[in-house]
Amino acid sequence: MRTVFILPEAFGGYGGIAKFNRELIETLCARPDCDEVVALPRHVPMTPQALPGRLYFDVAGTGGVFAYLLRCLRWFVLGKRFDLILCGHLNLLPFAWLLKLRSRAPVVLIVHGVEAWEPNRRALVNLLARRLDHVIVVSHFTLHRFAGWSGVDRARMHVLRNCVDLSLFSPGPPNPALVRRYAVEGKRVILTLGRLDANERAKGFDQIIGAMPALLRERDDVVYMIVGSGTDRARLERKARALGMGDRVIFTGYIEEDEKPDHYRLADLYAMPGRGEGYGIAYLEAMACGVPVVGSTLDASRETLREGRLGAVIDPDDPDAVLAALRDGLDRGKGAPPAELAENALPAFAARANEIFDMIAAATQRS
Q: Residue 367 is inside which H or E element, if any?
């Protein structure tokens, strides 16, 4: 089986979508029937990690939209036959369909979250979405939202939940070097990890900063640590200072992937009561480190947290609920990772991905 993967990021990328794509590529390359996987990333911001065998990672199209189009056209002109076309983002569907014109292989869109909850602003993308052969979605929440406007037959939609590497993310003591770096000795840490995106503002940063004054009136040893970078940082810093919380809200900036487990281990509570999570890998990573978690009733984090069985789910628009969840989470303290987290471990992800690819192959043979 030869697969071409049109995708935003994977190896050399960061964030949840890049991580998902890396794990999916590794699963594909490990299949006995895999001849080759050709991946065409739009962005490679960092030096790629070690690449799996059978992968051709074509980075020549990362110089912008025009360069990417030229690279896809090159593969079109070469006329190489593919058995499967994966598309890693709704906005990349036109490029995937270009390759379908040559190979006639099924196009499988991967949907992560908010980008596909409503119709796209481009009519062509919406037209192509309605003609998909199959869709892989990371949550039932997103499946229902995407199916509602696209009209794709739900029998051709397959849920593949995000996963966590339990060999990397596990309980452990705080790293003394990080305790010194952030001056959090003797403090209880509320943590949120994510991009500070001024165009979205969907992670719940504002809600937690807003709750900090009331929380500190009850307990004066709490700090809020925001891990990540982005265009909204300056506004959030101003908000923290305006509330008198300038010394209680810590902005770490961007951190490397290999530092993430130790940052979770610094935390006494992971809180991300947002409105835009398509699943939320960070919740899984925090729980794997034994940290209690707060999610939201307004996005797919409620599914990640099994409707409240694995962590609190609250309405982020209810300040009293936010404050109560922070208070209760800090009181609960750290513990063992929940047993149900095994359903989101790497082996479960690979098994489900292979099941989906087998179903797609069988459906293609019948058609």
A: none
DSSP 8-state code for residue 90:
G
pLDDT in tens, 31-84: 999 999 999 999 999 999 899 999 999 999 999 999 999 999 999 998 888 999
- Note whether 21 and 5 are within 8 A (CB): yes
131's CB contacts (< 8 A; 6+ apart) are none
Domains 2-163+345-366 and 176-343 share a fold: yes
Domain borders along the chain are: 2-163+345-366, 176-343
Residues 6+ apart with CB under 8 A from 306: 340
Domain 176-343: give its CATH superfamily.
Glycogen Phosphorylase B; (3.40.50.2000)
Query: Quick one: which of 266, 297, 296, 272 has its CA closest to 195?
Result: 272
Strand-strand pairing, 188-193 and 269-271: parallel
Residue 367 has pLDDT above 80, yes or no: no
Closest CA to 21 of 36, 34, 10, 13: 10
Q: Give the span between the Cα atoms of 316 and 296, in whole angstroms.
A: 6
Model confidence, pTM: 0.93
Instruction: State which fold the 2-163+345-366 domain adopts.
Output: Rossmann fold (3.40.50)
Secondary structure of 187-248 in HEC code, one letter for each residue: CEEEEEECCCCCCCCCCCHHHHHHHHHHHHHHCCCEEEEEEECCCCHHHHHHHHHHCCCCCC
Pull the structure tokens for residue 290: 């034994």
Q: HSE, CB side, 13 Å, CA atoms: give it for residue 244.
A: 7
Backbone angles phi, psi at 112, to 5 degrees: -105, -40
The whole-number pLDDT of residue 15 equals 87
- Rounded CA-CA distance 264/170 in Å is 9
- Give 164's DSSP letter: B
The Cα 100–Cα 262 span in angstroms is 44
Question: How many angstroms separate the CA atoms of 237 and 209, rounded?
Answer: 10
User: If DSSP states are collapsed to H, E and C, what string results for 315-358?
Assistant: CCCCHHHHHHHHHHHHHHCCCCCCHHHHHHEHHHHHHHHHHHHH
When the pLDDT of each residue in the chain is averaged and rounded to a whole number, the result is: 96
